[in-house]
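so ive been stuck on this for like two days lol. basically i have the seq below and the ligand is zinc ion, smiles is in there too. i just want the complex predicted, nothing fancy, no docking runs or whatever. if the output looks off dont worry ill sanity check it later, just need somthing to start from for the group meeting slides
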Amino acid sequence: MGAPGDIEDLIGLMARLPGLGPRSARRAVLMLLKKRGPLMAPLAQAMAHVALSARDCSVCGNIGTEDTCPICTDPRRQTGEICVVEDVADLWAMERAGAFRGRYHVLGGTLSALDGLGPDELRIPLLVRRVQEEQTREVILALNATVDGQTTAHYIADALAATGVQVSSLAQGVPIGGELDYLDDGTIGAALRARRRV
Amino acid sequence: MGAPGDIEDLIGLMARLPGLGPRSARRAVLMLLKKRGPLMAPLAQAMAHVALSARDCSVCGNIGTEDTCPICTDPRRQTGEICVVEDVADLWAMERAGAFRGRYHVLGGTLSALDGLGPDELRIPLLVRRVQEEQTREVILALNATVDGQTTAHYIADALAATGVQVSSLAQGVPIGGELDYLDDGTIGAALRARRRV
Ligand SMILES: [Zn+2]
Ligand SMILES: [Zn+2]
């Protein structure tokens, strides 16, 4: 309270964003109000445009502006490899790394009895069908190194067993530039178990 | 990089908000993408609406949707008292506290040679004219307890001297619920100097 109603409504909506509480939403809106022309209007327009045009790719679950996303339609991307990620953010991170030239499958979460997320919600049957139809050679599981992520990875590996496709997962270890001091025990343990001769 | 161009543009604009860096802007946009209908579309609409309709009150500098803000046009607000604040955020904070029933004057900053903010930019001549025209009894300086805030307060007190209006400022001291341990030395010193007999 304190600001006019329309502005309070805007602050309330902004406060629902992750990383912004009520206080910082208020500060953000104030800054927008000071930069109505150069920032607030373009931001509103960009957001409205994306809200209207964004859609989930019907093949892989990536977000784009067409029924099929740019990665699925890019003839230069290898069809024989599918990288399975939990989330579109993970797909973006993989793309930023620029190390993978195949296609993706976005689960949209991990198996979770609590959240009512089963294999169908995560589009796992669709993944099995893709592997068969696209004659996939390898499925790379790039799931988070959490309990839920690893449970989901095992479930997918089992579901794909009958197809004969090779299933692999990202190596676990010390991140580049990572200081042992700041890593959790699980990471250090995994890095030790996966140690390589140098 | 990683997301489609339109979405990257949106992330770039969001990252310019205070409290959101590039990483959290990305997370915020991802959350908006997941809630396109219930959150992203209404947020875009609310923002576009405010960007179009918001304007600075020609009397006091508060932000509203008309030429003159609701506080300046509210006949129940006392005209004899003007509370001077640096920023619209401070006006909102005062209104949330609900302790002041007069009118405001929003400076839009503090005197700063560095930022090229002089008396004219801060609407100080306009304040002097208001005090004369509105027959103001008291001007309450609710400026931040910073060096710039206090320099500005002194300048305004000098500028108003000839009008004969009473000029006061908010009391400094320990905030309610404030633990001495967590207060800076300046606050403790000011509270000690302003001590009252109990
Ligand atoms: Zn796709
Ligand atoms: Zn006003």
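The two ends of chain B are 63 Å apart (CA to CA). Strands of chain B lie at 55-56, 63-64, 81-85, 103-106, 138-141, 166-169.
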